[in-house]
Amino acid sequence: MATHWTICFDAAEPQRIAAFWAAALGYTTEPGFDGPDAASIIDPRGAGPAISFLRVPEPKAAKNRLHVDIRPGGDATALRAKAAELVTLGATVVREEHYGEHLGHIVLLDPERNEFCVA
Q1: DSSP string covering 48-89
Q2: Does residue 1 register a pLDDT over 80?
Q3: Nearest-5° angle of CA 34, CA 40, CA 46?
Q4: The Cα angle at residue 94 between residues 39 and 78, in degrees rounded to 5
Q5: Which residue of 26, 43, 83, 100 has the smallest Cβ count within 10 Å?
Q6: What whole-number percentage of the chain has pLDDT above 70?
Q7: Which residues contact 62 (CB under 8 A, 6 or more apart)?
Q8: What are the helix and strand counts (H, E) for the chain?
Q9: pLDDT band at residue 3, thresholds of 50, 70 and 90?
Q10: DSSP-assigned letter for residue 111
Q11: Distances (CA, A) of 80 to 5, 42, 45, 84, 94
Q12: Strand order in the sheet with 28-35
């Protein structure tokens, strides 16, 4: 049997970053886990892990050692459309990575400058 688990992110503004990721992933707020110093979001279908955001005093200082890949499926048009949607939510596009002639993934930053990809 698999163990339930949660991925946790340090955050300057837990509620703000939780709202971004909830919209990006189609998640919802986890009941009972939304205070000024922490927030948690869950997959409403129960398939994906919970994601928690915990307030920390120090700013982000280096590249992530772990990141999220959002996988919308489809071709380059679908990847670019998802990236554009995320930009309207507060993400920033960093670059596109190609595998030969084909778009492989798009690197973005979330509102707190955590790297992630649309792949």
Answers
A1: SPEEEEEE-SSPP-S--SS-EEE---SSHHHHHHHHHHHHHT
A2: no
A3: 130
A4: 85
A5: 100
A6: 100
A7: none
A8: 2, 8
A9: confident
A10: T
A11: 31, 25, 26, 6, 13
A12: 6-11, 50-55, 38-42, 28-35
pTM of the model: 0.92
Find all residues with CB under 8 Å of 113, minimum gap 6, and list them.
60
* Residue that the structure tokens 């492989």 belong to: 104
Q: For residue 22, how many other CB atoms are within 10 A of its CB?
A: 20
How confident is the model over 48-71, as pLDDT tens digits? Answer: 999 999 999 998 889 888 999 999
Mean pLDDT of 78-106: 97
Which residue has better confidence, 18 or 59? 18
Residue with tokens 């992933």: 25
Token readout for 31 is 């009941």
For residues 26 and 11, give the distance between their C-alpha atoms in angstroms, rounded to a whole number.
Answer: 20
CA pseudo-torsion sign 99, 109, 7, 64: positive
H helix or E strand, kind and range, residue 25: helix 14-25
